[in-house]
Amino acid sequence: MKKLVTITFLFPLLALSQKAVMSLDTARIRIGEQTVLRIFFEYANPNEDALIGWPQFEDTLTKKIEIIDKTVDYESILDSNTQTYLREQQLTISAFEPGVFEIPAIEIELNESRFETNPLQLIVETVEVDTSKGIVDIKPNYDVTYTWSEMAKDWLKTYWYVFAIAGTIIALFFLFRLLKKYRKEKPEPEAPKIPAHITALAVLNDLMMHESWKAGNKKDYYSTMTDTVRRYLEERFDIHALEKTTREILTDLKNADISDTDKVYLKKILNQADMVKFAKFSPADDDGLVSLKQSIEFVERTKKHDDQAELNQQTTGE
User: Fold this and answer.
1) Does residue 258 lie within any of the structural domains?
2) Cα torsion 301, 302, 308, 311: sign
3) CA–CA separation, 269 and 196 (whole Å)
4) Strand pairing of 19-24 and 34-44?
5) CATH number of the domain that residue 245 is part of
6) Helix, strand or coil for residue 116?
7) What CATH number has the domain bearing residue 97?
8) How far apart are CA 280 and CA 272, in angstroms?
């Protein structure tokens, strides 16, 4: 009964800590001009276990509004006492037709809850043209000298495939003779593949041995540590971790054989590294040591034990 009363009392306080907002640097542009759309999401994360479902954008925002460029979504802490964070992303947008275009509200997920930003309007104005003047050439027409060297270059560009076919035939001829000469030789056995956790632990333990968290360049330290963890996730769980954001990695690992505790550790490690690399956050040395220890523990808990036995067996056989 006490737990029910406590949860009921805290729920409104937590709910009021979440806020999704969207704004434009300028809401009125001319055709082809660009403006920046900023998306903010403020939320409280006292237990440091929040999972954010951030919207994904392609090349267009709506049918009439195109996305020219975009930043990654990154977090910064607003209040360390209440563990209040701010996640932000910036989209550079443009439109190529005049009119008033609606930017609908954008949905953001926080654990099991959904929040919507405010909708916006983008006004696109046309460029006035002076129709009283006739159409004139930018520059007068003039003759161009077409030299023999230029003709030869153009001929090579047009008939390059003739040389490509001839080169391919010659290469295949020599390749056939080479294979015929060495076809009876026994190929060398492939070296045994080193398990993902052994490679990862070698790098992480090297960082621990050299006390790299005390170095002045925090960005290089966190990049080496998280790139090692991402490469381990890629080889261990067969996901493209090096090419994805933290949220996408956690989504891919949703059904993986990883405990919820390890997922929380992984999220904290990757999020802190993102803040160092993208938000110019500079954590304390103790935080760097804690992240490194958690990375090593994460690899140890999730490694494949049969990989080590297989590697030992292959090494003994050689």
Assistant:
1) yes
2) negative
3) 19
4) antiparallel
5) 1.20.120
6) strand
7) 2.60.40.10
8) 11
- d(C-alpha 89, C-alpha 35), whole Å: 14
Q: What share of the chain is helix, strand, coil (3-state, %, to 5)?
A: 45, 20, 35
In angstroms, the CA 302 to CA 306 distance is: 12
**How many domains is the chain partitioned into structurally?**
2
Give domain status of residue 53, yes or no. yes
List, as one string, the DSSP characters of 53-100: E-----SBSSSSEEEEEEPPPEEEEEETTTTEEEEEEEEEEEESS-EE
Question: Residue 269, exposed/middle/buried by CB under 10 A (0-12, 13-18, 19+)?
Answer: buried
Asked, for residue 44, whether it belongs to a domain, the answer is yes
Full domain range(s) for residue 274: 196-317
The strands making up 28-30's β-sheet, listed across from edge to edge, are 28-30, 120-125, 99-103
User: 289: burial class by Cβ within 10 Å (0-12, 13-18, 19+)?
Assistant: middle
Contact 29, 95 (CB under 8 A): yes
pLDDT tens, the chain, 318 aa long: 333 333 333 334 344 468 899 999 999 999 999 999 999 999 988 888 889 899 999 899 999 999 999 998 888 988 888 889 999 999 999 999 999 999 999 999 998 889 999 999 999 998 776 677 666 667 777 777 878 888 888 888 888 888 889 889 998 888 888 887 776 555 566 667 788 888 888 988 888 888 887 877 778 888 888 888 888 888 888 887 777 888 888 888 777 778 888 788 788 888 878 887 776 777 788 887 888 888 888 888 888 776 555 455 545 444
DSSP, collapsed to helix, strand or coil, labels residue 106 as coil
Q: Is the dihedral of CA 42, 47, 48, 51 positive or negative?
A: negative
Number of H helices, E strands in the chain: 9, 11
Which among 98, 125, 152 is the end of a domain? Answer: 125
